[in-house]
Specification:
It is a single chain. The protein is of the alpha+beta class and 99 residues long. It has one domain: Glutaredoxin. Helices cover 42% and strands 25% of the residues. The chain has four helices and four strands; from the N terminus they run αβαβαββα. It has a four-stranded mixed sheet with strand order 2-1-3-4, covered by helices on one side. Helix 2 links the parallel strand 1 and strand 2. InterPro entries: Thioredoxin, Thioredoxin-like_sf, Thioredoxin_domain. Keywords: Disulfide bond, Electron transport, Redox-active center, Transport.
Length: 99
């Protein structure tokens, strides 16, 4: 996963990573929000989900201490990272800003 993850975040397009866990209720809420964000942003950005229970080393590498944690990468650079549930409008604007 780590090699594939590096390829994904090295993209010219912004990539929003959703670090989540299947047992996490707020993560389920965030997931439905991200579906709408994807509709809003279209091809302007990618949205990738990373299960912290399946990839704990990846979560640790990026300092994920709680779920959900969202992070935006572009050209391999971490541009933004925050934990908690975020709304459709703020995430859509955030991705447009980096697109």
């Amino acid at each position: 996963m780590s090699q594939k993850f590096q390829e994904i975040i090295n993209s010219e397009r912004p990539v929003l990573i959703d670090f989540f866990a299947t047992w996490c209720q707020p993560c389920k809420v965030q997931s439905s929000v991200l579906n709408t964000v994807k509709e809003n942003i279209g091809e302007g950005a990618r949205i990738i989900k990373v299960d912290v229970d399946q990839y704990p080393a990846l979560a640790a590498q990026y300092g994920v201490r709680g779920v959900p944690t969202l992070a935006v990468f572009k050209n391999g650079e971490l541009l933004w990272k925050e934990s908690g549930v975020h709304d459709v409008n703020s995430l859509t604007e955030l991705l447009k800003q980096y697109a």
